[in-house]
Structure of Por secretion system C-terminal sorting domain-containing protein:
Amino acid sequence: MKNLVKFTTVVAFMFATVAGTAREPKLNLISEGKAKSVVLTMDATSIGVQVKLMDSELNVIYTERMSEGQFSKKLNLKDLIDGVYFLTADDNLKSYSYTIVLKNNELNILETAEDVKPFFKKTNNMIFLNYLNLEKDKLSIKIFDAEGRTVFTQVVAEEMIVEKAFNFADAFPGTYTVSVKSANKTYSEEFVVN
């Protein structure tokens, strides 16, 4: 058990180090005459970054997965009608969202938001969960099997760093879903146990 706690602590420390050294994304506006564009520059993790541009009804206008390493993506918005648009950049550690308003040939960013996601790692028959719960929200952690039956449930309250290790050595083979839910967000990850 001590080895498991040590390993979990090392993984959390490595996660915090990687997250701390990653460069924050930068969004630049280019508005010259009728050329309305945004340029998103950021570092992509090994899994990559999913970039989406959506309209006010959340219809996807543009989507692309950026590969590992630093990238810069220019999105030309000159053909879009006046209105509210959402640009998101999503990787396995964080989700960034920007609210963009086009009005009278002008481009403005109204709001930016950053959301830290739980970090899941699977090794052999173990699943590790690390989550930086900055607001110390009450969290509900559940594991479901392929048929939707709850096989584990726990409520965590007032913890800033949530670290859990789940042992699936004696579990039946199949697909399991780990769900982390706070008052206003839900994250889930699927794992296959052989």
